[in-house]
Design brief:
This protein is α+β, with helices and mostly antiparallel strands. It contains eleven helices and four strands, in the order αααββαααααββααα. The protein has a four-stranded antiparallel sheet, with no helix packed on it. The longest helix is centred in the middle third of the chain and has 67 residues, at about 135-200.
C-alpha cells in the first residue's frame, strides 16, 4: 500500500515514474519520514475503528449515525461521483476493442433515361487501435486510479460526517444537560427568594437580600431561553445531517435523559503507518497521484507510432433478393507518426509532469496533516480527562459549600451575599464540568476520526459505495 521512506532527492523522480508504459501502476514513494510511534504513549490495541462511536454507549447517537449513513445528501452526491468514475473506467476499457459501425441505405434515381428501380446497400466499417505503446492501457490505469480516488473520497466524507454527527450530538446533549442544570438552579433560587421575602417580613433582613435574590434568579432565568435556542439549532443541524426536515430530532433530544456521552477509560492507537493506511484522505491523495502520473505516459505516447487496423465490407443491388450476391470489402493497416507539431506534445508532457509533482506535494501534505491530527487529538483527550477529574472535585466541593451556606443562611448565621456566592460557584462548577465532559467526548471522537475511524478499509470500493460495480479489469 504505502512505502514511507526517508526524505530523499529521488522521491519526486520515483513518484513520477510510478506508471510504466504497460499501464501497471507502481506505488510511489511519499518521501516522508513517518515516525515509528506517537509522541504521547497510548495502548497499541485500538477500538474497532469502523464503529467507534458505539463506545460512547449512547443509543440516540447510534441511531443518528445510522440514519446519516443511509440518508445524508452529501454522501449521495459523492456516491454519484463514484458511479461517474466507474463509467469512465468502462469507457476506457472499451478502447481495447474494435469499433464497428453498420450502414444501410436505399437509393432511387429520378429523371429521363434513368433506371428508376430502388438500389439497396448494406455495409459495415471497423476500426481498431493496437495498444502497442501503452496509450490505452495507461488511460485505463488513470481511470482506475480516478475511480479509487472517488471511492476514497466517499469514504473520507463518510468519516467526516460520522464525526460531525457525533460531535453535534454531544453538543446537543451538553446543552440539554446545562439546560437541566439551569432549571434546577432556578428552582433553588426561587426557594432562596421566598426565604429572603419571609425574613424581610419578619424584620430579620433588609430589602437588599430580596433584591439580590431577585437579580440572581432573573439572570439564571435569562440563560434558559438562550440554551433552548442553542439546543434547537443543534437539533436542526443534526436533522440536516440525517437528511430529514427539522422537528423529530429536537423532540427526541428534549425527551431523552440529559446525559453527556462518556468515552471509554482507555483508547488505543495503531502505529502511525497503520493509521495512514486507515485514513481515506491519504489514500485518495495517493490515488490522485497515480492517476496524474499515468497521464504522463498518455501524453508521451503521442510521440510514438500509432498503429490502426481498419476495414469495411458491403454489398449493393437493385433488389433485396440479390442483396448479398456480391460482397466487397477491404482491410487496411496504417501507421502514423508525429513528425512536427511546434512543441505542443512536449509541452503537454511537461504539463502532465507538473500536475503530478503538485499531486505528490498534496499527498505529502495530507500525510503530514493526518499525523498532526492524531497527535493533537491524542493530547486533547489526555488533557480533557485531567480537566474532568479536577472539575468533578470542584463541583462536589461547590455543592457541599452551597448546602452549608443555604442551611446557615436559614439559621441566620451568614448574610445573603455569602449564600449568593456559594450558589454562583456551584452553578459555574456544574456548567464547567458539563463543558469539560463534552470536551472529553469530542476529543475522543476527534481522535478516532483522525485515526481514520468511520469507514471500513477492508471492504472493496464497490461495497463501500453500495453501487455494486467491480473496480477490477
Amino acid at each position: 500500500m504505502f512505502h514511507f521512506k526517508g526524505l530523499g532527492a529521488g522521491a519526486l523522480a520515483l513518484a513520477l515514474a510510478a506508471c510504466s508504459t504497460s499501464g501497471q501502476l507502481a506505488t510511489p514513494d511519499a518521501g516522508i519520514a513517518v515516525p515509528e510511534r506517537w509522541s504521547d504513549p497510548a495502548p497499541s490495541v485500538a477500538l474497532d475503528p469502523v464503529s467507534y462511536w458505539t463506545a460512547l454507549d449512547d443509543p440516540l447517537l447510534d441511531r443518528f449515525v445510522a440514519l446519516a449513513l443511509e440518508n445524508n445528501r452529501d454522501l449521495a452526491q459523492a456516491a454519484s461521483r463514484v458511479a461517474i468514475a466507474r463509467a469512465g473506467v468502462r469507457a476506457s476499457r472499451a478502447s481495447y476493442l474494435p469499433q464497428i459501425s453498420g450502414t444501410a441505405g436505399v437509393q432511387r434515381d429520378f429523371g429521363s433515361f434513368v433506371d428508376t428501380d430502388p438500389q439497396f446497400s448494406v455495409g459495415a466499417d471497423a476500426q481498431w487501435e493496437i495498444d502497442l505503446f501503452g496509450r490505452i492501457s495507461n488511460d485505463v490505469a488513470a481511470s482506475r486510479a480516478e475511480l479509487a480516488a472517488a471511492g476514497y473520497g466517499l469514504a473520507d466524507l463518510q468519516r467526516l460526517i460520522v464525526g460531525q454527527v457525533a460531535q453535534t450530538t454531544i453538543s446537543a446533549r451538553t446543552l440539554a444537560t446545562q439546560l437541566a442544570i439551569a432549571r434546577e438552579t432556578l428552582a433553588i433560587q426561587d426557594d432562596n427568594l421566598q426565604i429572603a421575602q419571609w425574613r424581610l417580613q419578619a424584620g430579620l433582613v433588609s430589602s437588599l437580600d430580596v433584591e439580590q435574590a431577585r437579580a440572581q434568579r432573573a439572570q439564571t432565568a435569562a440563560s434558559i431561553p438562550a440554551l433552548e435556542r442553542d439546543l434547537a439549532q443543534a437539533a436542526n443541524t443534526i436533522s440536516t445531517l440525517l437528511g430529514e426536515a427539522p422537528g423529530p430530532v429536537r423532540a427526541e433530544l428534549e425527551e431523552a435523559a440529559p446525559t453527556i456521552p462518556q468515552p471509554p477509560g482507555s483508547v488505543g492507537l495503531a502505529l502511525p503507518a497503520e493509521v495512514l493506511r486507515q485514513r481515506p484522505d491519504v489514500r485518495q491523495a495517493e490515488a490522485f497521484l497515480l492517476a496524474d502520473t499515468a497521464r504522463i505516459d498518455i501524453a508521451r505516447a503521442q510521440l510514438l507510432p500509432l498503429v490502426r487496423l481498419s476495414g469495411n465490407v458491403g454489398s449493393g443491388s437493385f433488389g433485396l433478393s440479390a442483396l448479398f450476391d456480391t460482397i466487397t470489402g477491404s482491410l487496411f493497416a496504417g501507421v502514423s507518426q508525429l513528425i512536427f507539431d511546434g512543441g505542443r506534445t512536449r509541452a503537454q508532457i511537461d504539463s502532465a509532469r507538473a500536475v503530478a509533482a503538485g499531486s505528490l506535494a498534496a499527498w505529502q501534505q495530507t500525510i503530514l496533516q493526518a499525523l498532526t491530527d492524531v497527535e493533537n487529538a491524542n493530547i486533547a483527550l489526555s488533557k480533557a480527562r485531567q480537566r474532568v477529574a479536577e472539575l468533578a472535585t470542584a463541583r462536589d466541593a461547590a455543592g457541599n459549600a452551597a448546602i452549608l451556606a443555604r442551611s446557615q443562611y436559614q439559621a441566620g448565621l451568614i448574610d445573603f451575599q455569602t449564600l449568593l456566592t456559594a450558589e454562583s460557584q456551584l452553578l459555574s462548577a456544574r456548567n464547567a464540568l458539563a463543558a469539560a465532559e463534552a470536551e472529553r467526548a469530542n476529543a475522543f471522537v476527534a481522535l478516532e476520526q483522525a485515526a481514520g475511524g468511520g469507514w471500513d478499509p477492508t471492504r472493496p470500493i464497490e461495497q463501500t459505495t453500495s453501487i455494486g460495480e467491480d473496480t477490477q479489469p
